[in-house]
Design goal:
This protein is of the alpha/beta class and about 260 residues long. The chain is built from nine helices and nine strands. About 30% of the residues lie in helices and about 25% in strands.
């Protein structure tokens, strides 16, 4: 099935009949959805509904059937889109001597991190971190970062190079309120600047209401999908989570370029 490209979006991802089985047990059953660039789609569901398995299937980390097709105006359709991935958290020993600069270079360069830094290495690190306004973290020990700081570094690595699809798996589960706001401000700036397709898993239904364009409720299969209002008022959602009074949305269209430049 072709994924139509709207006037406001120049790329689209079509997921068709994605199924994951373990022996005779069906973990995900014929998941089909499409996502446009610049939009944030949130996946919600009870514990054990298959949300993280869904992301792992997209990343090719678990066997699955079905197809994933990415289309854009500038490239031929591909079944192997480039993914960026931010996990729930990265655990590091607080006493580790590894710096953020070491971590970034180990991820984006083949230059051995134990050798003296060249000027171009430091420039590369600053470039990678600048996309999430985290340049000041370069010299810090990675194990001493706050939860929010570490997730911003992970986000910087996830978008270098800029992916077709950015996957966020409970990215702020260990982050304080201030860090959560900053993280999603950065995500909003990325949507504005790079028109990235974003797929988010989160248990925070208030955050989803503020930031998501579309919501998909799964329980092995898709049981509801649509806007926040449509899904939150659906019978399957209410049976799972109860009645939720959602916070007002933070609309992407109201996010100005001046906002992005100051994050």
């Amino acid at each position: 099935m072709s994924c139509p490209l709207g006037k406001a979006h120049v790329c689209c991802t079509q997921i068709s009949n994605l199924t994951v089985q373990s022996g005779k047990a069906v973990i995900l059953d014929n998941i089909s959805l499409h996502m446009h660039c610049g939009e944030l789609t949130a996946i919600v569901g009870r514990n054990g509904a298959g949300k993280t398995t869904f992301l792992k299937a997209l990343l090719g980390a678990v066997p699955h059937t079905g197809t994933i097709t990415f289309e854009s105006e500038n490239k031929a359709p591909t079944t192997k889109p480039r993914f960026g991935y931010v996990p729930q958290q990265l655990s590091l020993d607080a006493g580790s001597p590894v710096s953020v600069e070491d971590l970034v270079l180990a991820s984006v360069s083949r230059y051995p991190v134990w050798l003296p830094r060249r000027k171009k290495d430091k420039t590369l690190v600053q470039h990678v971190l600048s996309r999430v306004s985290a340049e000041s973290l370069a010299e810090k020990k990675a194990g001493e970062l706050s939860g929010g700081e570490m997730q911003r570094v992970m986000l910087a690595l996830a978008i270098h190079p800029v992916p077709d699809i950015l996957l966020l798996d409970e990215p702020v589960s260990a982050v304080d309120k201030t860090g959560i706001k900053l993280f999603y401000d950065v995500v909003s700036s990325l949507r504005y600047n790079y028109d990235i397709t974003i797929l988010l898993i989160s248990h925070d239904l208030d955050i989803i209401a503020r930031h998501a364009d579309r919501v998909v409720l799964i329980d092995r299969e898709i049981t509801a999908q649509g806007t926040v209002e449509e899904v939150y008022n659906s019978t399957p959602f209410i049976e799972t989570f109860g009645h939720i009074i959602a916070a007002p949305p933070t609309r992407f269209n109201n996010f100005r370029k001046t906002d992005a430049e100051h994050i």
